[in-house]
Input
Amino acid sequence: MDNSEKNKRSYSVRMRTFAVIGILMSMACLMTFGAGFTLVEKAAMAPSEIPVKDSVASVEAFKEVYSVLMSPRCMNCHPSGNIPLQGEDSHLHAMLPKRGLDGKGVYSMKCTNCHQPVNTPGLNTPPGNPDWHLPPADMKMVFQGRSAYELAKQLLDPKQNGNKNLKKLIEHADDGLVKAGWNPGEGRKLPPLTHAQFKKAWITWLTTGAYAPKDK
Amino acid sequence: MITLNINKKTHRVDADPNTPLLWVLRDIIGLVGTKYGCGVAQCGACVVHLDGEAVRSCVTKISRAQGKKVVTIEGLSETNSHPLQKAWLDLDVSQCGYCQAGQIMSAAVLLRENKNPSEQDIDDAMAGNICRCGTYLRIREAIQLAAKDQKNG
Amino acid sequence: MEKNNTDYSRRAFLRASALAGGGLMIHFSSLASLVLPKNGEAVVSEQWSELNGYIKITPDNLIKLICPNPEFGQNVMTSLPMIVAEELDVDWKQVVVEMGPHDNVKLGSQFTGGSNSMRMYWRPLREAGATARQMLMQAAAQSWEVVLEDLTTKAGIIYHEKSGKKGSYGEFASKAAGIAVPKGVKFKAVKDFSVVRSSRKNVEGAKIISGKPLFGLDYTHPGMQIAMIQHPPAFGMKLKSFDASQALKMPGIKDVFSMKLYEDGFEQGGFDVRSFNELLVVVGKTTWEVMNARKKLVVEWMPAGDTKNTVGGRGGKREVVVPGELEDTDAQHTKMREYAAKPAQQLRKDGDPETAFKNAAQIIERTYTAPFLAHNCMEPMNFFAHVTAEKALLVGPLQAPGWTEPTLMKVLNLPADKIEIQMTRMGGGFGRRAYGHYLVEAALISRKVKAPVKLIYTREDDTTYGIYRPMYTATYRAALDADKKLIGFHLKGGGIPEHAVHANRFPAGAIDNYLAEGWQIASNITVGAFRAPGSNFAAAAEQSFLDELAEAMGKDPIDFRLELLKRAKDKPVGRNNDYNADRYAAVLQLVKEKSDWNGADHGKYSRGVAAYFCHSSYAAHVVDMVIRDGQPYVERVFSAVDCGIVINPDAAANMVQGAVVDGIGNSLYGGLTHKAGVVEESNFHKYRIIRMHEAPKKIEVTFVQNEIDPTGLGEPPFPPVFGAVASALYKATGKRFYQQPFLLTRPGLPSA
Output
């Protein structure tokens, strides 16, 4: 309880600060948004990780992040509905597999019934990963249809991001399933950035204040 | 050599660990009830149970099946007594019959996890199995009949 | 006893295979176990007395009925023997059914396709049953020294009421087998039928649901190798050179070679169609090993250029040029539009259509198109062959052994009696397996590698090198006078490489001024039979057009058709109208009644209706569509069918339901396109097949009850589905759909 109270307070303080910056940045047509790092979290960070706020760099970094997240390799498993997407045109997955409560499919249509621990060789075969799944039903982490602003906000919201703090968010760049996007199986396009570029942009975004572009 | 447990029997198989379970079942062990339809997990003709899950054996390497229990249509029951098999016969579901083993193996997982499936549940569970003859309505009906049978004993 | 069935069948299968020395497929009905010796071995073949090609009986009164026609899901293995059982007068439970070998002398023409089985076999099988019964009675009359007229039969037992004597068919079977086949034997009256017209379960149902080896792909043989063919990547290409050194190093690989299917100048019959003549073959131990080795082939392909086929059969021997073009679907559409504007061949003309159109107050003109369709049989093409210098054994899925045998004789240089063809159960056929090139390929490969071989097509092979349903277009024009009366009708259809104009079909015969024309464009894309190939397009286009016409004329679509049919009946126009207007109208009236066409809950659905006659049977459907999750969904369907006497009603209903589902799927999603000769839909990820959630919740099938000799059911219920779906789509969306598949649009073409 104490912590959450504290969070709220520190959050509102920062919001005010950002609001000032926001005004300053208004000529660049940007709206800012800050990640709510608690003091405890800050204490846990190594000195080099302590955010140096830089809204321009942060927004630029998020643009790159967003281009990756909205590419089929990432978005296809972050659909707005309960059915994953498929292909470069992100159409509804053939045979309409359902998310299920745990994100792992339902009945005889569980993800891993087709998606193996590794990519199946050949064209048009199921890509693989040991942990293949969608976000669970209580934390859908939708990418499809989200604006950059909305997605940034959602990624940072502990209620929507699986309770991830900055450290965990940073670590998530190296998650096995995230990295699977760069090993998509034969015939599939890679995301627009390399994983290293993506990771750099992701960390830059998070550690420079986690600003997001204003919605057009 | 890879050791596989198939329909409660142990088989030692001399095959590349990357070989799909489908082809080991069909070409090496001689269990041909599991069918080849597409080879890319699109049609469901090759569904078998791997530790109870309806895996597509055309993309499931035998290395993944090692140490797990595989059940094929031949092992679903000894005397065609599974409620689904009985319902399939009662409603004379099959036309060409090629896809039906896969259909039954998929439906078996549904019935195990949901004793009273709705039409929506059936659609959700069975959309991965293609029947080119179009016996879907009878498959749906047979699953519901089997569910009733299962409930009544 | 039922309990032992599984084990028994399996052992019987193995034993029967051993007895035949080559793997004779024997199929027992589920009650076969009743007559089993304790050890479960198959009954020794010597005990069978053969009364004719279709009937064998043991002294124990086990009745074996031979099915002449190969089974691909239309249930002939049950329904054809039912006809024999009826006239033979046996209890269906006594019967075991066996798939016959290829033997045109004993078993007739043995062709599954064209909705022919019932039409072709109704009379021969009644005769087979009735004459065998008579022979058994004659044998009993001789043994008992009584007159034949005093004998009766019931359920496989012969009775002599006066003396109280009775005996089973089995007791007299061996004697009866020696009696000359009687002539002029009377058939049962339809009202006395006890097997036919009552629902009997699929004789192979239990084997299907327990995974028994029934299909060609399941067939195995000692020493059998697996073969696959690497085809050119596109229609219009051919093999230039290949390097197999890497492939040959792969585990399990025995041989890689190229060979010709037909030698130059080989005279092709109508069913010798094949996509490519030069085969690049990989042979090895297991399917997976051969699949992998194929990927290691280094192949150079080259444009084939224009080539020549020597074609025989109807029309005599002639050279046909196959264009070498690498075809594109968009270019095909453009070309079809060009041809549609040119003069075409007149196929039928009644009255003075030119004047009718000149004087018309209103002309309605609509153009319809449909893509190539692939069959997508769930069991891909495959065949087993074991060919030596002396003889050939071929086992697998095949619709028409009698059409491939002459080809095998020529290609293998063997006489017919040295070629044994066994037909396995087929995982779908839809016309595809009437083209036996794949067993000729298997035979040549076996001869070359001097070993038993099973040739397997992968799904991709099957889809991309098919014998497709052609690509079609048709323009329909109607002339209305100032009172909105239909005074002229013009159909001009074309296709690649053939058109789908059936000039003598409805509404020909119902309109005074009528013109039908056709044109075609040559192509290297191979085409052939496909569940009523031309009819399913014609029904889609014509029935859609009639729907639109009815609307323009302010008439109910069913009433409008009934008016035309009344005209065709009362005062038919022209000759050779190929339909019976009464039976046509009857299915429409029946579906109108069953669907409660004018009923109150009508408003919940977007309704479409269509009726069609083809392959000798009549079918009508009312399709009820809703928009679900933003997508059109056919929720229920009412079907009315007249195929004469319905042999096996529940199985017949199953087939109609299947045809409806197939029709919905193909009309909404089916289609094969080409880019530079390459088929763009190589597998089910792109070639969309209707799935469970897209199938209606209810399909209510009603058969017209009559005593007309039965006709087929494989095709007739399929074509009108397309038209009914198109009209329902119009009601659901407010848009007319002219281009199949209705729900997949192609950029650059009007979708509606």
Notes: The longest helix of chain C spans residues 117-144. The longest strand of chain C covers residues 617-628. Residues 1-44, 746-752 of chain C have pLDDT under 50 and may be disordered.
